[in-house]
Amino acid sequence: MVLASSVKVVLGSIAFATFWILAVFPAVPFLPIGRTAGSLLGAMLMVVFRVLTPDQAYAAIDLPILGLLFGTMVVSIYLERADMFKYLGKLLLWKSKGAKDLICRVCLISAISSALFTNDTSCVVLTEFVLKVARQHNLPPHPFLLALASSANIGSAATPIGNPQNLVIAVQSNIPFGKFVLGIFPAMLVGVCVNALLLLCMFWKLLSIQKDVEDATGEVVGEDDVISHRFSPATLSHCASFNSQELNSRLEAQSVLGSPVVENLRNRVPSAETEIKRVSSAGAFESERNSSASKTEETNDVASQKKEETVAPKRTPSRERLGDTCTTTESLEGKENLTTKWRRMLWKSGVYFVTIGMLVALLMGLNMSWCAITAALALVVLDFKDARPSLEKVSYSLLIFFCGMFITVDGFNKTGIPSTLWDFMEPHAKIDHVSGIAVLAVTILVLSNVASNVPTVLLLGGRVAASAALISAADEKKAWLLLAWVSTVAGNLSLLGSAANLIVCEQARQAPHLAYNLSFWSHLKFGVPSTIIVTAIGLTLIR
To answer: Which residues are CB-neighbours of 103 under 8 A, at least 6 positions away?
Structure first.
């Protein structure tokens, strides 16, 4: 493709540069509008500058990718509600044998959960949990946060639903789900092991010495608190349990509105307490009187016993009625709790069954977008309640970001600049020999950290595949898988290379009572060697 007119090239470059700056640096001082608004601004400029027509802009939005992304997010939300990540947490703590064992488990669980639930979701829901585990074992959080973020990126490369760029590649390449997994899974498995080994080598001394000064006065986190932690893909929260003071405050707040039901309930509580106190005081007075009678009339034991038997029946019926009431209430509550427990168990089993069904359908080669959407709607119906609270947790800002990015990247492609650059690189990036694979990998690695991985895939995907298709169909598939592997692992290079890295950094910094600042340079010291080594090893294993 030749370059477009000079005016279109300049204006299209300005629109793309605006998008790129706001996507990579969302809090720039002169325009702090964020990534989502930045992508929409870039898309609007492409239309205003007449690089694209409005119809071309709408056509550039890839609905199958958006449908697949939406469906996987909804499924992840219901899996979180079904305590999937709670069970992963129990697996992380089960028979742990120290810091080095824990860091290996973090790598493994992060990789598995990212392959099934996307890397961003896994990092959102596991970051605070990892911080709690580190605090519970009095360990430094730095290596565990690096293990979480880096393994999430590596693990997400194994499946088409693991990260956004893989979604794009799976839809554009039409590679079946099963063949995609078989092509990258060996590289992912070895990559996670190598990444864990690098973490152990780099932080061996730090993991051998428990923290004693920095957090000596820190809050101690118990194992029960760690396991009972609840997560949400949108917000992190803890299980709330109301105590009596909280209940009273709720009742008082509602009584201001003059609710007769609440007033009736509040009036019942003091009366019940008064009756219990009256019975208790009567019992105490009775006991004292019987004691004094036994002391003063020791020779009349039989008469004393008759007197007690005469007085006791006067109070026995009221006590029996109160005991029967308490027993009935407890039995009803027990039945309700048992019914609720069984209903929740059945619902959780249904959620897992639907998720497994979605994975089986994907492995059978059915349409990935509609498989995810169908599973999401099946879970909504299975829940049998208003789906708004769950649907509100979907990251609609991410979906809008993708819409703007599709339009912006398509407009930049229309300028002819990416094609011209690829025409220059293509002779040196043939995947039928080692040097060509190395040049292609370095190009993808650099662009993924400069322009982000999803725009890189959108810019290079079709061109790399078309070049490889001239060699053979097998090489075309390999080119897509190489693009998926390198663009994903490239996110580990720096803190800005992947959204998962930024999520871990922000979640750790904002965690209540557990805050930790993962700096850019501390991440870079591990990210550079890990990315280069893991990428190189994976390239030899992808088929």
So the answer is: 143, 144, 147, 196, 199, 200, 203, 207
Max Cα–Cα distance, the chain, nearest Å: 122
Q: What is the 3-state secondary structure (H, E, C) of 484-511?
A: HHHHHHHHHCCHHHCHHHHHHHHHHHHC
Axis-axis angle for helices 142-156, 520-539 (nearest 10): 40
Tracing tokens 């600049």 back to the chain, one arrives at: 417
**pLDDT bucket at 330, cuts 50 / 70 / 90:** low
pLDDT digits (tens, 9 = 90+) for 68-80: 889 988 998 898 8
CA-to-CA dists, residue 437 to 208, 418, 478, angstroms? 40, 19, 11
- Which residues does 201 contact at the CB level (< 8 Å), separation at least 6? none
SS3 (DSSP) at 143: helix
- Taking the mean position of all CA atoms in its chain, how far away is CA 78? 12
Burial class (CB in 10 A: 0-12, 13-18, 19+), 79: buried
Residue type, 418: P
Cβ atoms of residues 481 and 185 within 8 Å: no
CA gap 119, 133 in Å, rounded: 20
Residues 6+ apart with CB under 8 A from 165: 453, 454, 456, 457, 484, 487, 488
User: In the prediction, which pLDDT does 322 show?
Assistant: 52
Please indicate whether residue 95 or residue 292 has the higher confidence score (pLDDT): 95
pTM for the full predicted model: 0.69
Closest CA to 512 of 328, 251, 238, 279: 238
Q: How many CA atoms lie within 13 A of 538 on its CB side?
A: 33
- What is the structure's pLDDT at 320? 57
Residue 57's alpha-carbon distances to 248, 404, 406, 409, in angstroms, are 57, 9, 8, 10
Give the CA dihedral 168, 173, 177, 180, nearest 10 degrees.
-100
3-state class (DSSP) for residue 231: coil
**Closest Cα to residue 489, out of 72, 116, 163, 180?**
163
